[in-house]
Amino acid sequence: MIIVIGPDATKEQKQAVKDKIIELDYTPHEIVGVERQVIGAVGADHGKDHLMEVLESMAGVESVIPILKPYKLAGREIKSANSVVDCGGVTIGGTRIAVMAGPCSVENREQICTTAEAVKKAGANMMRGGAYKPRTSPYSFQGLEEEGLKLLKEAKDLTGLPIVTEVMNPREAELVARYADVLQVGARNVQNFSLLKELGKISKPVLLKRGMMTTIKEFLMSAEYILSEGNKDVILCERGIRTFETATRNTLDLSCIPVLKKETHLPIIVDPSHGTGHWDLVEPMARAAIAAGADGLMIEVHPDPINAYSDGPQSLKPSKFTHLMDNIRPFIQLMGRTL
């Protein structure tokens, strides 16, 4: 439920409200907005009516409003303004479009540093690369692990680009957080609730990818797991869902962008590389994502896609990425946004 704090409430009165929420086995989440200051009380539904009655009678409380949606903290009921997430100096969710570019897998120093320099020159403002790789086959390349994280850090030191990389295991979350600016949850782990709760306790932004068969409600409930543990910096990512179509790797669900914009204050980016699986389809879907209202793009770039350890067919060569960046700028400007 949402507890609206009166404009004349004292700090002591506000603290008393928080203490009462905790006493009744709920968790308070304070949100300071432009027009009003509210405290969200999140917890099990049992005892909700009693909690409302108690809080409505407390000094400093203007009103108490029940939250109807199952995603309490991710929904716009508790926060109507769009959230803006700071990712190592690059904001996602404001007027600026974030472009995260780089290879699927970190393979070696030359590959990752060459790619980092190329994508920065083309206009990308963040670097992506996988050190831990979830693969369908146990015999496929699984990533360089911590050595890959160290190489990503070298690329960041070389270019200044903030790093986005995936974390797969709750036990490795702290390790990855020491190197990365943004912790990515891959599609296969979107409902790995142990991992989500662990990331909710870390003070680093989390990029949450939609699962291959995850509904929008399930997607937002996964975000809720992270938010409920205290981490407010969550970025959603549409990367295609599984349908009957075989012409593309996945079906990129761009209709989810306006739906999510209506349902949640969290920023949403799009991954047209995984969404299509074909490098020549990435640019048109990137343009479409911007037109639909996405807050950013995640694009795979590799200097030698034919010999890439993973996802070569959907990776752009640096020259193709430069061409894409030149072509999406008019679309970004048309939407009243900047790179």
Give the helix/strand layout.
Blueprint: E1 2-5, H1 11-23, E2 27-32, E3 37-42, H2 48-56, E4 61-65, E5 85-87, E6 90-92, E7 98-102, H3 109-122, E8 126-128, H4 146-159, E9 163-166, H5 173-179, E10 182-185, H6 193-199, E11 206-209, H7 216-228, E12 234-238, H8 256-263, E13 268-270, H9 272-276, H10 279-292, E14 296-300, H11 318-334
Parallel strand pairs: 7-8, 7-14, 8-9, 9-10, 10-11, 11-12, 12-13, 13-14
Antiparallel strand pairs: 1-3, 1-4, 2-3, 5-6
Helix pairs in contact: 3-4, 3-11, 6-7, 10-11
Q: Assign a percent range to the helix content.
A: 25-40%
- The tally of helices reads 11
Principal-axes geometry comes out as elongated
Please identify the top-level CATH class of the largest domain: Alpha Beta
Description:
The protein is an alpha/beta fold and 339 residues long. Helices cover 36% and strands 18% of the residues. Helix 6 crosses helix 7 (216-228). The longest helix has 17 residues, at 318-334. It is elongated and about 65 Å long. The model has no long low-confidence stretch (mean pLDDT 93).
